[in-house]
UniProtKB/TrEMBL annotation:
Record-linked Gene3D superfamilies: Metal-dependent hydrolases (3.20.20.140)
Signal peptide location: none
SUPFAM superfamilies: Metallo-dependent hydrolases (SSF51556)
Organism field: Plantactinospora alkalitolerans
InterPro entries: ACMSD (IPR032465), Amidohydro-rel (IPR006680), Metal_Hydrolase (IPR032466)
Protein name: Amidohydrolase
Length: 317
């Protein structure tokens, strides 16, 4: 049975088999997220476990299961999840490498889209983006700013930004805390201020910051004030608000972004990523309820939950 929310939904932010994504893991190791030593790893895992268990219990989420042995089986499982939750299209922003996520998209091109997600500082990063988009059909570039080896406004990254701008694909840039409990708390290179300097140099390139900017929400709002090409995505449980030194709720985030950035630069995402949890319809329902309780007109709801994503992904016109 398909859930009917009375609205067309395009989800801008999912991950395919993120727990087994060697591309992302390589970047994590490069920034020292996983220092060696079995004893140290065990101590860190033990410290993070209570938070993770408490979070899953609060949301009634089951324990994650290992990825399927055969990736097409998992891709088919996602199609069922999307159909049953009434999601018309969904973007996998990571998926085990550019070719791997492109293969997933090719299996179900009517439902899936995908992003490149390679290291922007890697040799030939701009050429790889060109290949991923023009040869493999990917629709954007996902970058984890806490995992890069320098600031986003480093001139060494300009060829990548130039390529993305020329190809007309958006760049999704994660800033702030990376990972759940036990993750990286911050980075010297993940400030929206760095992103704003890039956005001003490449005004026709659309940047999207997920999870409302995490702890950098204030800097993100000001960056978006100065740069009309900076957008925000709403993805995830946004549990990070509990760690802020002042009271902040999901409704506060929506209201601030809606009143300042505007509905044309807010993009819905769920951050769905693992089974047996599957598609996190609860995140969607909570966000849609907040937007409706705020009294948003239907045109703004259509923009936030589908239209803006379609425009950024080149699915319109």
């Amino acid at each position: 049975m398909t859930v009917d929310r009375g609205l067309d939904i395009v989800d801008f932010h999912l991950h395919f088999r993120i727990g087994a994504d060697q591309t992302v893991q390589a970047c994590e190791h490069a920034v020292g997220m996983h220092p060696g030593g079995e004893r140290g790893a065990a101590v860190r895992a033990a410290g993070a476990a209570p938070y993770a268990a408490r979070w899953r219990r609060a949301w009634s989420f089951p324990e994650p299961e290992p990825p399927a042995g055969h990736w097409p089986d998992e891709a088919d499982r996602w199609v069922t999840e999307l159909r049953e939750n009434g999601i018309r299209r969904a973007v996998f922003v990571t998926g085990g490498g550019n070719d791997a996520v492109a293969d997933v998209v090719d299996r179900h091109p009517d439902r899936f889209l995908g992003f490149a997600h390679h290291d922007p500082f890697a040799p030939g990063a701009a050429d790889e983006l060109e290949r991923a988009v023009t040869e493999r059909g990917l629709r954007g570039w996902k970058i984890f700013a806490p995992l890069v080896r320098g600031p986003l406004d480093d001139p060494a990254l300009d060829p990548g930004w130039e390529t993305a701008q020329r190809l007309g694909v958006p760049v999704l840039v994660h800033v702030g805390h990376y990972g759940s409990a036990g993750g990286l708390p911050s980075s010297p290179y993940d400030s929206p201020n760095h992103l704003a300097r890039v956005a001003r140099r490449f005004p026709e390139l659309a940047f999207v910051v997920p999870h409302f900017g995490v702890q950098h929400i204030q800097e993100l709002l000001f960056a978006a004030w100065g740069c009309a090409n900076i957008h925000v995505d709403t993805s995830g449980s946004n549990q990070w608000v509990r760690w802020m030194p002042y009271r902040l709720t999901l409704e506060d985030l929506f209201r601030r972004c809606y009143e300042t950035i505007g509905p044309e630069r807010i993009v819905f995402g769920s951050d769905s990523s693992w089974f047996p949890r599957g598609y996190v319809g609860r995140y969607l329902d909570d966000q849609l309820r907040i937007c409706r309780e705020m009294g948003m007109p239907d045109a703004d709801l259509r923009a936030i939950f589908a239209g803006n994503a379609e425009r950024l992904l080149g699915l319109t016109g």
